Amino acid sequence: DGGITQSPKYLFRKEGQNVTLSCEQNLNHDAMYWYRQDPGQGLRLIYYSQIVNDFQKGDIAEGYSVSREKKESFPLTVTSAQKNPTAFYLCASKRSVNTDTQYFGPGTRLTVL
Amino acid sequence: AQKITQTQPGMFVQEKEAVTLDCTYDTSDQSYGLFWYKQPSSGEMIFLIYQGSYDEQNATEGRYSLNFQKARKSANLVISASQLGDSAMYFCAMREGPGTGGFKTIFGAGTRLFVKA
After folding, report:
1. If chain B, 117 residues long, is cut into consecutive pieces of 10 residues, what is the mean pLDDT of each piece?
2. Is B50 on the interface with A (CB under 8 A)?
3. Do A98 and B103 touch (CB under 8 A)?
4. For residues A39, A44, A47 and A48, what is the CA-based torsion angle, rounded to 10 degrees?
5. Residue B85 phi, psi (nearest 5)
6. B116 burial class (0-12, 13-18, 19+ CB within 10 angstroms)?
7. pLDDT > 70: what percent of chain A?
8. CA–CA dist A66, A59 (Å, integer)
């Protein structure tokens, strides 16, 4: 079964701790994306990667970091510098940067205690 | 700047009736793509339908159709024969062009649809 997996589904973190959210895809897609969604709002782009070993900041990259060492994996680290990290995080991928449809994983809900 | 506007925060529709969800967009690109996604309460984003800026025919996928009016910069989603399972949040999105946004996708704020039995 091809698709995008995100783990964990729910994540709790204490203030001041870094936490890493996993995103894996077996669709052989080049491009991968991380979005943040706050309650009742749309998606905002955190980081994206067009190809392995390359990534660019999105609109709200401060307090986040990513890596893209493998084509199928694009983990997101929420650092202690992110002032308000409680949100729903969605990972997406598409075949290449200039193709159109993004497909999404099931999301990770992060709560800072 | 590229922008997506969904003016209906919430909509009600009677089961089996059709409903139109509004979306307007703003871009200076000639080549762009428009999408609709459905987000149920579980949170996953489900791709529904896509319209390319050069497509002359309106896109259709089963009960979903996209009413594309390029001159008015609108891309409304029409759901025919609504079902209870259509109750969800619906997002309009636009894939930007290569020059301005590096093919990034931007999302509207969403419309919550409630289907009444």
Report:
1. 88 97 93 94 94 92 97 97 97 80 83 97
2. yes
3. yes
4. 120
5. -70, -5
6. exposed
7. 97
8. 14
